[in-house]
């Protein structure tokens, strides 16, 4: 996938998340969001004049998820409901920018601690907004295939197998949808 935006700036990649480097991640990521021609207008329409309040909340949110700080007291679904004009391509771009920023700032084992929650959150927000039969855009599918581990068909025990995992209708993401019945 060739992103249509500049790569994240080079910084020394951290081996472990800390409050300080989470703050740097959040502020660096939202600098990229604000400069992005697709995402910037959507975020500015909602956060114009309130970025100084929003960014510390995002630091607390990611610190709670990644460090287990348990300080964030908000409802992610509710906070994103009033956003007008959000389409599938906005989720794809947000994910790509976020994961690219995380990859540029953390070593792989630490980066996964951000990527897995980001993918779950995006999944939840997209299904809530677009419905259970929502089919994610091709560019986002490619991103998810690159980041998320592939599932093997039942009975495929070959560790290095190149078989592509198939996903049943209604389960477009690599993680099992919470509340969905197990396969028979």
UniProtKB/TrEMBL annotation:
Assigned keywords, A-Z: Heme, Iron, Metal-binding, Transport
InterPro entries, per the entry: Globin-like_sf, Globin/Proto, Hemoglobin_trunc
Pfam families: Bac_globin (PF01152)
Entry keyword annotation includes Heme: yes
The protein, known as: Globin
Region of interest (Disordered), residue spans: 148-184
């Amino acid at each position: 996938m060739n992103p249509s935006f500049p790569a994240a700036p080079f910084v020394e990649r951290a081996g472990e998340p800390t409050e300080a480097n989470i703050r740097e991640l959040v502020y660096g990521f939202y600098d990229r969001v604000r400069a992005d021609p697709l995402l910037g207008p959507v975020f500015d329409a909602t956060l114009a004049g309130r970025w100084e309040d929003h960014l510390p909340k995002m630091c607390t949110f990611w610190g709670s998820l990644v460090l287990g700080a348990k300080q964030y007291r908000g409802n992610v679904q509710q906070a994103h409901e009033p956003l007008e004009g959000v389409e599938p391509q906005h989720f794809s771009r947000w994910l790509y920018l976020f994961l690219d920023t995380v990859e540029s700032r953390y070593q792989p084992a630490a980066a996964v601690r951000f990527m897995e929650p980001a993918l779950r959150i995006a999944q939840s927000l997209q299904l809530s907004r677009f419905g259970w039969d929502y089919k994610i855009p091709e560019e986002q599918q490619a991103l998810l295939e690159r980041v998320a581990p592939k599932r093997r068909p039942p009975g495929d025990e070959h560790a290095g197998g190149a078989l592509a995992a198939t996903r049943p209708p209604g389960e477009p993401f690599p993680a099992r949808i919470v509340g969905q019945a197990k396969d028979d």
